[in-house]
Design a protein that fits this description.
Length: about 100
């Protein structure tokens, strides 16, 4: 079971975007694509077949999983996730408060 999933709010704990929060858009092997985090500019050629306009495009690239932590809304801080088994089902809980994610 993954501790951080698509749709979770995460906070960056190191790097140039330290302290910023965003929602996980995509989960890759050991990396996450987070909205508004780790943005780069890319030059894109126009493609008339797909109705794409060329130019400079800003997009998000994956960030290492070790550089982000899940955001706990009740404490307003970054937190760790534990997996507990309750009634035969495994659930994710915050380590600091014990509340479900």
């Amino acid at each position: 079971m993954n501790k951080i999933r698509k749709g979770d709010t995460v906070v960056v704990i190191t790097g140039r975007d330290k302290g910023k929060r965003g929602e996980v858009l995509q989960v890759l092997d050991g990396k996450y694509v987070v909205a508004g985090i780790n943005q780069v500019k890319r030059n894109v050629k126009p493609n008339p077949m797909k109705n794409e306009v060329g130019g400079i495009v800003t997009k998000e690239v994956p960030i290492q999983a070790s550089n982000v932590a899940i955001f706990n809304g009740s404490t307003q801080k970054a937190d760790k996730v534990a997996i507990k088994v309750v009634d035969g089902k495994s659930t994710r809980v915050f380590k600091s408060t014990g509340n479900a994610v």
